[in-house]
Design a protein that fits this description.
Length: 417
């Protein structure tokens, strides 16, 4: 009897839309192959991992963060966090992003499950089902997953002009088209240290972007979500965007996705926040309620231990100074790799965007799959994208950069570019 039952084909109970979701993430699959080959004794350069690693291959961490995790009052940490997050945490994050200026006074915030949760809340509250967010054609894959999963879409503009600058005209064309078609727009950009290209806007580009957003925001509902995931690894001065974007916040809504994942090397704690700036106090109250409702309707409350620990690290001067110093060591480690890559890749004639810091860079190629496959044959793992391969300097020691660049040079040559 049991044999009859088990041999019967099982009818899928998944709804059709969920029945053919892709399985293993391609980046995790490549990382898996790199690890298997390394475990079998091969010398491997694994430039697929999106986390900052020490030169010995172990995950970089900030010791002060773990010290504070151990100090948080157990009964506070074990209790539910408020649905929107603890007020001191939200105030600390607003201050971390905006300092004491006008934008800080006009911001509301909720705690989210990392920057991913912040992007999710932006998408479901500022776009109708069926509408598309606007982002650059090189973008972080989960934007598409979040949009698709929530019944929204992604539309892209070309990231770069032919001379390698940020293509502001292409963004403006898409923005105008979306406002015409949808009556609203949500522009999602990840700067500084864009994943995957490594690009950071310069001051003129920020000024131009803010001007375009403000111009369109004055005549239709425009929301700009800035994903700050890698901001702490940017070159000095990268926070000047706050000054340039301020005028836009007088007409449109500015959202900022903040995350402790990279800033505090705490990927697993899932501590993040979505900040929203609006000049109108009633609108701010509506936005805060909408975002808190989304918290309740997704994860309910965030990780309380993480929120309390990160609050201490942001607000206690001694702890803040210590975690800043520990992070400065990690940034120096990464900057050494960035400098080595810029030097060697330029010498090898590779084409890549301006790269001043951050976890990743892309190398342009005619056939990314072929380039990645050729590199893989010599034990160098990178992630193929459309028209480029993504190289994770965050997981590549400076001593491996010459080998990485040589494998890419051969891979790009084999791809016919
Ligand atoms: N945005 C970008 C561009 C990212 O690369 C990541 C992580 O890889 C995130 C947001 C969100 O990360 P988390 O949800 O861990 O904060």
């Amino acid at each position: 009897m049991s044999e009859v039952l088990t041999s019967r084909p099982i009818m899928s109970t998944l709804i059709p839309a969920a029945a053919d979701r892709p399985g293993d993430d391609p980046i995790f699959a490549l990382n898996g192959e790199a690890q298997r080959r390394a475990a079998a004794g091969e010398s491997v350069v694994n430039a697929t991992i999106g986390a900052l690693m020490e030169d010995d291959g172990s995950l970089s961490i900030l010791p002060s963060v773990f010290e504070v995790f151990g100090r948080v009052d157990p009964r506070s940490a074990a209790a539910y966090a408020p649905i929107a997050g603890d007020a001191p945490f939200l105030a600390a994050v607003v201050r971390d992003v905006f300092g004491e200026g006008r934008l800080a006074a006009e911001a509301v915030a909720v705690a989210t499950a990392g920057g991913t949760g912040a992007v999710h809340h932006g998408v479901v509250n500022f776009l109708e089902p069926g509408q598309a967010l606007a982002t650059s054609d090189y973008y972080w894959g989960p934007y598409q997953t979040i949009a698709h999963h929530t019944g929204r879409r992604v539309e892209v503009f070309s990231t770069f002009t032919s001379s390698g600058a940020f293509d502001l005209d292409a963004l403006e064309r898409l923005l105008a088209r979306q406002l015409e078609a949808q009556g609203r727009a949500l522009v999602v950009l990840n700067f500084p240290c864009h994943n995957p290209t490594g690009y950071s806007l310069d001051e003129a580009e920020w000024r131009g972007l803010a001007e375009v957003l403000a111009r369109h925001g004055a005549r239709a509902p425009v929301t700009f979500l800035l994903d700050l995931a890698y901001a702490r690894y940017a070159a000095a001065g990268a926070d000047s965007w706050v000054r340039w974007i301020e005028p836009f916040a007088q007409s449109g809504t500015l959202l900022v996705a903040w995350s402790a994942s990279k800033a505090f090397a705490q990927y697993g704690a899932r501590v993040g926040a979505l900040l929203a700036v609006s000049a109108d106090s009633e609108e701010r109250a509506r936005i805060r309620n909408a975002l808190a409702y989304s918290c309740r309707g997704t994860w309910s409350n965030c990780n309380h231990l993480g929120i309390l620990a990160i609050t201490h690290l942001l607000t206690d001067p001694e702890l803040r100074a210590r975690s800043d110093a520990e992070r400065a060591r990690l940034k120096a480690l990464l900057d050494e790799r960035v400098a080595a890559f810029n030097r060697d890749a330029r010498r090898a004639g590779l084409r890549f965007p301006r790269y001043e810091g951050g976890f990743f860079v892309t190398v342009f190629t005619r056939d990314a799959k072929r380039t990645a496959a050729v590199a893989r044959d010599s034990g160098v793992f990178v992630v193929p994208l459309e028209g480029a391969v993504r190289v994770a300097l965050c997981s590549t020691p400076a001593r491996d950069v010459p080998r990485l660049v040589e494998a890419l040079r051969r891979g790009v040559e084999a791809a016919g570019s």
